[in-house]
Amino acid sequence: MKNLVILGGGYGGMRILQRLLPNNLPNDVQITLVDKNPYHCLKTEYYALAAGTISDHHIRVDFPEHENLTHKYGEVASIDRKEKEIVFTNGETLGYDDLVVGLGCEDKYHAVPGAQEYSYSIQTIDQSRKTYRKVNDLPAGAIVSIVGAGLSGVELASELRESRKDLKIKLFDRGATILSMFPERLSRYVQGWFEDHGVEIINGANITKVEPNVVYNHNEPVQSDVIVWTAGIQPSKIVREMDVEKDTQGRVVLTPQHYIPNDKSVFVVGDCASLPYAPSAQLAEAQAEQIVIVLLKRWKNEPEPESFPQFKLKGILGSLGKKHGFGLLNEKPLMGRVPRLLKSGILWMYKFHRG
């Protein structure tokens, strides 16, 4: 019996399960899903969990059940490609024939002293829970500083504004304008929403140090009751320690079939994979679809595809609280209620009509 091991039940790992189960998995193949949690987590909604506008249960989705699917709950210490086994922090090992590495990402602190020690995060469900508890225990008038005004920072700041109108929220942005990677009209709209709702945007920020309750912008101290870090990501530590070729962002360089060159047994999906797109749930799912095609061909002893068409990504959607949003669909900017409704609809479809 061949063993396909999937490390991480994120968007990529979940899509592989959805495409193989219940009817496409050969009888001589079993799947072992490895994750720290006994459920799939909707990472795109962690900002709302941290802000306190949704419950923990709202962003959990059960893993599928199948007679040829085994769940292994634990924390991975390393991947031994020579022995083809996973090593866990408790010393246990797990062998594999094919491996899909989908361990996601961690915060990137850019060597800023104190950033990791003295800031909160929304990268994992556990970290988001801790951020929720800290933020929602604050008294009225407390200051929350959010470092990083990308999609996560913007969504957290806007959701927190609706959740706690009594807090003072500061959003530190490296750019001259917020969301500078988007069209100017969309960027102005988001900036205007924050101004109308009393969120202070600090453009041209350069965070040089973080201390307990103090974030230093251009070496100038800014008092803060809570500091939340949303200023960049990097592949998981396990992937960073793998002895394989990586790009400048530390992501694993892959063949067109999404496995490691010279090691066809190891695929990498999602935030840890070197792809010509920004990491996203949508991208991980699109990549997972192609990995399934390769696996099915391999198991049937048929030639693997030499290449795949470019991914057809539909765009980006972001929320500004529960009633407004923004996005780019087919390069067309969207602002107001429509993108927020679209995002809510996509989330509902994902939770209740998966696969």
From TrEMBL:
The keyword Amino-acid biosynthesis does not apply. Its EC number is 1.6.5.-. It is an enzyme of class 1 (oxidoreductase). Residues 3-287 form the FAD/NAD(P)-binding domain. InterPro entries: FAD/NAD-bd_sf, FAD/NAD-binding_dom, NADH-Q_oxidoreductase. Its cofactor is FAD. The keyword Flavoprotein applies. Keywords: FAD, Flavoprotein, Oxidoreductase. One of its GO terms (molecular function) is oxidoreductase activity. Belongs to the NADH dehydrogenase family. This is NAD(P)/FAD-dependent oxidoreductase. It comes from Metabacillus sediminis.
